[in-house]
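Figure S7 source data.
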Amino acid sequence: MEWLERYRDLIPDFDGFRAVQSQALPSSCRINTLKIERCALLDRFAENGIDYQSFNWYPLGLKLDMESPGKLVENLSGYIHIQEELSMVPPLVLDPQPGELVLDLCASPGSKTCQISQMMKNLGRVVANEPSLARIAPLRSNCERLGVMNVAITRYDGRRFPSRPVQFDRVLVDAPCSSEGRERRGPGVLCKSSSKRSMDLHRLQADLLRNAIRLTKPGGIVVYSTCTYAPEE
Ligand SMILES: C[S@@+](CC[C@H](N)C(=O)[O-])C[C@H]1O[C@@H](n2cnc3c(N)ncnc32)[C@H](O)[C@@H]1O
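Tokens for the predicted S-adenosylmethionine complex:
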């Protein structure tokens, strides 16, 4: 049985879903207002002949009709950040405010950490937690390139991030997942999927969410996001 068939009963138009999944994911970017205003960036794109289409739901999101947008000088300069459209949603739901104390429990490579800092106008503190040593470098370099100044990086297993001495105003749990929701990134994304892996991830995701709730001040906000549903069997 095809691996994603197990979602058939959950998704009303499953065949439509599969048809969309077979299309390549369009490139998109977020305008980084820590470094440039939206209108100045759009002027630059017009001058340099860069085609884009604005998202209809988020003024800082643009679809880019090109290969390798990461090589754009605007990206290298930190004026934009290449980020999938859906990945821009969780920080908006978290709605961090300037001056708050915010935890991004599963942070690398930092697309959402940097969007959170941008929303906070670099004021207050974002703790970006990432246990994988190999994934600290991309997190740090994204923060540097995008001019993010209010991030502190930690390396806890998120299940054991200590709830003392501080509790957070808001916590984002962008949980590790089986990547099934990222199938449109290309062939091979699903090759590591297995029932055992899904079960292990299910337990990890639930434990991370439980700790995130412990780490949040009374009345604070926890946002949980993942690209994949990891079912309990
Ligand atoms: C979906 S990715 C995060 C993407 C990131 N939030 C972004 O927007 O760029 C999940 C991250 O969780 C990390 N991770 C894995 N196990 C973890 C754990 N036990 N505690 C915290 N983070 C973990 C992974 O290394 C990975 O970097």
